């Protein structure tokens, strides 16, 4: 498992009280809530256990179609029904849980996309273009700068064309 996969598994284990509270027994829920509170003593207080038990009962009394099934949906449901005052610690814990993984994932995805673009541009670039790319670092001649700008535009046009062809191929498959 990758490092980020291990991190997400650890986050899920730490927030077990929030993520799996509907399926945990009362004893398991109290242990998981105590563990979560110990990780965030400045953010969550002793009423987290009671709030989770109350929320579990509250959701059990609802129509099954109205019950939120994911942490994000539960967070939205609490907000839409103005229940932040009833479940303040649950709301805080849900927000901590829902926002932590998203932040890491988008950064990883951005770097991955950047790496693909750079690799593509490197693999399609001729030696002449490489020289033109690095020429501004060596000389400040205006002609060289114009040639570099032109080469960059050509690279991006080629990239966009190939990207369009790849998307068409995927749609046709």
Automatic annotation (TrEMBL):
Domain HAT C-terminal dimerisation, chain residue ranges per copy: 62-129
GO molecular function terms attached to this record: protein dimerization activity
InterPro entries: HATC_C_dom (IPR008906)
Top-level taxon: Eukaryota
Protein name, entry field: HAT C-terminal dimerisation domain-containing protein
Gene: 20197868
């Amino acid at each position: 498992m990758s490092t980020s996969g291990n991190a997400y598994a650890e986050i899920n284990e730490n927030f077990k009280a929030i993520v799996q509270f509907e399926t945990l027994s009362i004893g398991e829920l109290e242990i998981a809530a105590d563990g979560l509170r110990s990780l965030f003593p400045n953010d969550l207080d002793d009423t987290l256990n009671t709030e989770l038990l109350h929320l579990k009962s509250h959701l059990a009394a609802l129509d099954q179609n109205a019950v939120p099934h994911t942490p994000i949906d539960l967070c939205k449901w609490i907000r839409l029904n103005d229940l932040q005052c009833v479940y303040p610690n649950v709301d805080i814990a849900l927000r901590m849980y829902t926002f932590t993984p998203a932040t890491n994932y988008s950064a990883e995805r951005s770097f991955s996309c950047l790496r693909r673009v750079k690799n593509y541009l490197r693999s399609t670039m001729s030696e002449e273009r490489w020289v033109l790319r690095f020429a501004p670092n060596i000389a400040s001649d205006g002609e060289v700068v114009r040639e570099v700008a032109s080469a960059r535009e050509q690279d991006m046009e080629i990239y966009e064309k190939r990207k369009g062809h790849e998307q068409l191929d995927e749609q046709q498959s």
